[in-house]
Description:
Blueprint: E1 39-40, H1 46-56, E2 72-75, E3 77-78, E4 80-81, E5 86-87, H2 90-95, E6 110-118, E7 127-135, E8 140-144, H3 154-164, E9 167-168, H4 170-175, E10 182-183, E11 189-191, E12 196-202, H5 211-214, H6 218-231, E13 243-247, H7 255-270, H8 281-296, E14 303-308, E15 327-334, E16 341-345, H9 350-354, E17 359-362, H10 369-388
Parallel strand pairs: 9-10
Antiparallel strand pairs: 1-3, 2-13, 4-5, 6-7, 7-8, 11-16, 12-15, 13-14, 14-15, 16-17
Helix pairs in contact: 7-8
Amino acid sequence: MSVMPPLPVRAWAMRDGPMRHTRRHHSGVTEGEGPLQVSLAEPESVWGKAWIEGLESEGFPRTSPLSGKLGGPNIAPETIDPQMKQRSYVANAYLDPIRHRQNLTVQTETTVTRVVFEKPQSGGVAIAKGVRITSKAGVSETIGVRKEVILSAGAISSPRLLELSGIGGAELLQRLGIGVVMDNPHVGENLQNHAFTGLTFEARDDVHTIDAFFRQEPEAVAAAMQDYATDGTGPLSTSNMIAMAQLPLPDLHTEEGHKVIDSLLQQGSDAPSRSPATTTAAFAAAHEEFVRTIVTTPSEAAGNYVFGPAYAPFDGPDPNYRAPGKHVAVAVELSHPLSRGSAHISSADPAEAGANEGVRIDCGYLTHLLDLEVLARQLRFMEDLVCRAQPSRGS
C-alpha cells in the first residue's frame, strides 16, 4: 500500500531542545512483581507530549499503557532498566539469576533438527523421547528426556520442527520423504500476522527530530554516543518509538458502516480460498463476529498506531533509505486481522529449513476484504487527524 505524500506537520511542530532532554526516563514502573524492568519516557518529551495533546484535542483521552484497558494515546513503555540504562530482556531478567542451578544446561549456537518420537508397538499415540541437535561445528547427537519436550520456537519454527519430526499434513510429509508420525493438516496453518503500513510527514526545519541519527550522520552519532555514555540518555537509550495509541474507527460506527462491514464479511466467507482443512466453520464464524464487534464498537480499539520523530521508509524498494530533512512518522497497524496464512517446510533437510531457505511462508496479508478496508480507513483517519491536530502548549 502506497504511502501518502509527505505533508508539513505545522500543528505539531515544537521548539527545538537538546537531545538529552527528549529521552529521559522515569525511575521505573512498579506494577507487578516480575523481574523484567519497564520504564516510561517522561511525559515532558517534546514529541510525546505533542502526540498525546493532539489526540486528546480530538476526543481521545490519554490512558495508562499498563492499565489493561485499550483506547487512547499513551507514552510507550520500554523494557529498559531505569537504573542501568540498559535493555531488560529474557536473558538478564530470567536466565542470569538461575544459571547456577545444577539441573539447568544452556547450549548456544546449537540447532534442534527434529523431535525424536517413540511409537508404541500396539499403535496409539507417539511419545516424545528426546531431540536431535547439531552444534555449530556440525556434530549431531540425540538428547533424551525423562519427562517431556517443550516446543517453544515461535510461529515459524514450531511448525517447522513439527513437520521435520513427522507431525503435519501427510501429503506434504510424504512428498518430502518424511515418515508420518501423526497426520495433522492444521500444523503450519492459520498463521496470523499484523499487517502495517504508515504515513511519513515533513516537519519544520526548526524542530528537533532524530533523522540525522537514523541517517548515521557522524556528528549526530557522536552526540548520541556521548549522551548515552554521560548519563544514559539520547537515542541509544530507547527504541525511539516514543508514543502509541489504540483507537477506534469512528466512521464504522454508523448504520452505513455496519452495512459495509457485513457486506465485506459475507464476501470473505464466500471466498473460494477458504480451506476446510485450515479452519472450522464454527471458528471462522466466531472469529468474524469478534472482529465485527471490535470495529463497530466506539469504545474498542480497531487499530494500533506508533509514533516516532523520524522518517520511516514505508514504501519504496529500499527499506534502508532515509530521506533528507526532518520528519515524523506514524505506523498504522491492524489490531485484529481476519486474513490468515501458513508456514510449511519445503525441504526435508533441517539445515535448509533452519536457515529459512527450506521454509515456505505465506503471510496472507490483506487476503480478507475487511482487513483491506479497515487498514485503508485507518490510514485516511490518521492522515486527517494529524493534519487538523491542535498544537501542543508545551515547549
